[in-house]
Amino acid sequence: MVSGKTIGKPAAKRANWSEWLQQTVFVGPGLIAFIIIVLIPFGMGFYYTFTEWNGLDLGNAKWTGMTNITRILTDDPRFWQAFWFTAKFTLAAVTVTNVLAFLLSLLLTQNLRSKGVLRTIFFLPNVIGGLLLGYIWYFIFVRGFGAIGEATGIGFFKLQWLGTPETAFWGIVIVFVWQTAGYMMIIYIAAIIGVPKDLMEAARIDGANRWQILRSILVPLIMPAITICLFLTTSNAFKMFDLNLSLTGGGPGNSSESIALNIYREALVNNRYGLGTAKAMLFFFCVALITITQVWFTKKREVEA
Amino acid sequence: MKKKMTMALASAALLVGLASGCGNNDAGGANAGTNTNTGEGAATEAPKKDVTIKIFQFKVEIAEALEKLAAEYEKETGVKVDVETHGGGEDYSALLKAELAAGEEPEIFNSSGWAGFDPYVDRAADLSGEAWAKDLVEASKAQISRDGKLLGMPMNLEAYGFTYNKDLFEQAGISELPKTVDELSAAVEKLKSAGITPFALTSEWWSMGIHTLNMALANHEDPAAFISDVKEGKATLKDDPTMKEWIKLVDIMFANGQANALTTDYNTQVAEFATGKYAIIQHGNWIQGMIDEVDPDLNLGMMPVPLLGDTANVFTGVPNNWIVNSKSDQAEEAKAFLNWMVTSETGKRYISTDFKFVPALTSIEANAEAIGDIAGDFAAFSQEHPDRVLGWHWDHLPDGITQQWGAAMQEYLGGQISADDLLGKLDKAVQDIVKK
């Protein structure tokens, strides 16, 4: 820690010292936790990327250079299948989640009697943990839908929802949307409420119709919220693991295996920690690249009233 | 100003305390590889009452009984035994590795033998000198021994084949068990024309990737040699004649199961079989306990699986072993617990009656009533045709292969790939893991 020893006057010295003390007190604990929990493991992971290691005893890690990376890039179709699945999933999940969340927030900022209750209801799924929620939905898809299908004969419910590649994909999308849309809705609601009333009123007096108000006033003004929501859903969808594990376990076959699940299995099922970490590193850079691009892109469109 | 300063200092002191607390914990976590668990380490000096041993086990079927046994042990000796169960639908070995990687070192855990045991050899305490070791059934030792040392206690013996519902077979007019694949096919037709769904299937990777595949592996002259040839690329499953026969068998099973096989997990499969909805299920005596919960009077038997010619087989092996973790704090206590479990009257009673085990120790007598119809049929069959009792060979394969075999089987079950593709994928799964 730097104490202000170069400063002559005691008062100034004390002020400077107090400044540092405050920084340490308030930022320090968080910083220490961050370093220990995030930065150091990340650095270690960077090292494992270039080793062959079974994950159990650190002494057994063997330096292999670029072998893992080459292998992933040239000889790992399962990883790329998982990558493709995740990309498709992210596209579908992000679109549906945000459209739905935005529509809900529009609806629930109108003068509805029940809007408080409805907001709570839509937000609620977010409070349930992902794994638990996955198992609940597993039950709904397998037993619930089955029973409804048998009773009513409606084709939609008679599908083997988690049993074929296509329906398994949409099954996971449905649960993901159900879980996250409420949270995004809250962010959109906050943004919509924050839009100055006078602007809307002025537009209405000028004769703008609902669509024009939405497109030219509301959307540009809530652009910061859109940035945040897109960012959150994109990175969450990319990293999706718990729903995948609990709903389909990557099945049938490997058709619904997300990258996160693929990495987990490479490391902990196949006993190849080094290779798994290498995948995780590649994955990290991909997600970083995509989300940064997205934030940069939407930030450009943010305006101020 | 002064007051503000004091406040700042006070809160600083408080936070430094917190932060250092944090730091200590994390240091513990970082050292986990070398196993320092301060909390439990301190317990060593404490009176015996404070000793806790943790069992990280996989057998869902015995979870409850094992906890009761643990409570009895605590009553007798004062040693607390924590049981944590992960199995059935969960991937036990991945969870165990995660547990070990996180620096948790449970005193006792489970491991299969042969190659499945490789990752844990460093951790396994030598049990050759234990009192019970001399009583082990001969065939159960090799899988868990290394360099002549016994490194685990075989849990029990299990056997599987086609477990079938005798009443439904009678109802369909099948008086004699099929001895060949063709006869099986005929029997299946009879069942169907009597309005009975022949097979209860499941999409569980292990049921297909391990048990179904083993039917073919075990039917080789020397399964271990065949598997090692496949691993080295000297032989492929695709060109293997036994595998081609096996495909016929699999086709009969897959074509005659319930419609929603791909979304049926193990629990559902067994529960529905127990209600008498299906005639045949490809599982072994481990389902007896679950069946008894639904319908203890269900009239079951074990039908040998026909594959080559007319010598149908059942398959037996040691599913799992108790491993004492030498890197844990209470390894000696763990040995004492295992010893008590198989030598004390209470322990023996639990193993034969409550766990419903076919014991791997000759010193414990199997309880004919407890092991039930399925194991009873197996015992009778193995007396009559000892040469047709084949082994379990999946553990010669390193981790990761059978999971991918299971995934490929799911695709075949779902009709997404052809039989040729299936065999190709099985070969590829082996090569993918074997090559470094």
Automatic annotation (TrEMBL), chain A:
Q: What InterPro entries does the database record attribute to this sequence? A: ABC_transporter_permease, MetI-like, MetI-like_sf
Homology family: Belongs to the binding-protein-dependent transport system permease family.
Q: Transmembrane segments in this chain: where?
A: 20-48, 82-108, 120-140, 168-195, 216-238, 280-297
Record's subcellular location: Cell membrane
Q: Which UniProt keywords apply?
A: Cell membrane, Membrane, Transmembrane, Transmembrane helix, Transport
Q: Which organism is it from?
A: Paenibacillus agaridevorans
Q: Which GO terms describe its biological process?
A: transmembrane transport
Question: Membrane topology for this entry?
Answer: Multi-pass membrane protein
Q: Is Cell membrane included in the keywords of this UniProt record?
A: yes
Domain ABC transmembrane type-1: where? 83-294
Q: What is this protein called?
A: ABC transporter permease
UniProt GO cellular component terms:
plasma membrane
CDD domains referenced in this protein's UniProt entry, alphabetically: TM_PBP2
Record Pfam families: BPD_transp_1
TrEMBL record, chain B:
**InterPro entries (UniProt xref):** Bact_solute-bd_prot1 (IPR050490), SBP (IPR006059)
Classification via Pfam families: SBP_bac_1
Indicate yes or no for the key word Phosphoprotein: no
Highest rank taxon of the organism: Bacteria
- Is Signal among the key words of this record? yes
Annotated coiled-coil positions are none
Signal peptide stretch: 1-21
Report keywords, A-Z. Answer: Signal
Q: Which PANTHER family match?
A: ARABINOSE-BINDING PROTEIN-RELATED, DIACETYLCHITOBIOSE BINDING PROTEIN DASA
Q: Would you tell me the protein name for this molecule?
A: ABC transporter substrate-binding protein
Species in which this protein is naturally found: Paenibacillus agaridevorans
